Amino acid sequence: MPGLDETDRRLLRLLQRDATLSTQVLAEKAGLSASPAWRRVKRMIEDGIIRRQVALVDPPRAGLHAMAYLQVSLLEHTEESLARFDRFVQTEEQIVECAAITGTSDYQLKIVAADPEGLEHFIMRRMLALGIVRGTVTNFVLRQTKYTTAMPL
Model pTM? Predict the structure, then answer.
């Protein structure tokens, strides 16, 4: 990994597991004193290696009992259609992930809702109402067997 040594990777592994660690505890677990640990973390934030620190919410405990992966094909691939779809994705809180993909679809979305009816409402009344979507394929998540945001370092 360019620009990262083993100490940086150790700090990142610790932070990916628990970003609420104090600098002192983080330093101890990484085998450093507090000042060098703090400087390294600060540098990785400034360099954009650490984008942000967030709280991970458990969807069912937050009342979100339905999740689906949605493959989306657009009617047109004009700059205007792509920009409109991208704006839609950025403003919809129910979309928690979006990737432009290869294959028969243009995008893959991960969406959440309180229940299956909420997913249907989102697809039919919000997304298809845009008028730029040719078709969708929806895969409902029955059970999530692994979920992590941690990058393999």
Answer: 0.88
Question: Per CATH, which fold does 60-140 belong to?
Answer: Alpha-Beta Plaits (3.30.70)
Per-residue pLDDT of the chain (153 residues; tens, 9 = 90+): 468 999 999 999 999 999 999 999 999 999 999 999 999 999 999 999 999 999 999 999 999 999 999 999 999 999 999 999 999 999 999 999 999 999 999 999 999 999 999 999 999 999 999 999 999 999 999 999 999 999 999
CATH T-level assignment (fold) for domain 6-46: Arc Repressor Mutant, subunit A (1.10.10)
Delimiting residues of CATH 1.10.10.10 domain(s) in the chain: 6-46
Contact 26, 14 (CB under 8 A): yes
| Inter-axis angle of helices 6-17 and 23-30, nearest 10 | 130
